[in-house]
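This follows on from our talk about sequence and fold. I would like you to pick a protein and set down its sequence and fold. Go ahead and set the record down below:
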Amino acid sequence: MSTDRFNRLKDNLSRVDSLLALYEILQKEEARRLVSTKQDARSADILRAAVVLLHGSQEDYVRGMLSDWLFDRADSKELEGISLPGSAQKRAQKFTLRDLAQYKNEQVSDLIQSSIESQLSLVSFNQYSEICSWLSKIGISLTQFKNQSLIENLIKRRHKIVHEVDLNKKSGKTESIKASTVRSWREAVENMLRIVDEQIEGWDAS
């Protein structure tokens, strides 16, 4: 059994797998004869797209689980850092009755949940430790997971691809990337989030 969130993750990972399969097809000798060396080198961009999609799949799952469980599982102290929906502030700020008046027809629980979802939409996990920190707020531990460095490398590479178009600053050329590396990151993401999912399944069963 898996949670709906994990099933959604697996669907997203299958999209990553499709990109990896497409890259492998383009690497076959028959395909390589049909393109120039420069065009062939650009096929590695498929792997870069896979990295971005993989990272997005990871964030979608973690953010989704936090959205589902933060209200019920987090210590009330954790809610102090959450602002009202639509606030431009990333951190909670004082609000007046006037601020609350626009939510007069909402249940308090609905307002809190909307606030949580709004806040999480601004959150990005830039380090493995940040994933651990956020998940700990709902009582999830990743001490069983032993491939932290793979997740760190995935996060760093995604950042380089998105913000630096994966260029080496010294040479000005794109950094090399291998399908085997992306595949190892994909397996690490699935294994890490399966550990999370198994703990959450235990809550659903109790």
About this structure: The first helix runs from residue 4 to 27. Residues 96 and 199 are 39 Å apart (CA to CA). The chain has nine helices and no strands. The chain has a mean pLDDT of 86.
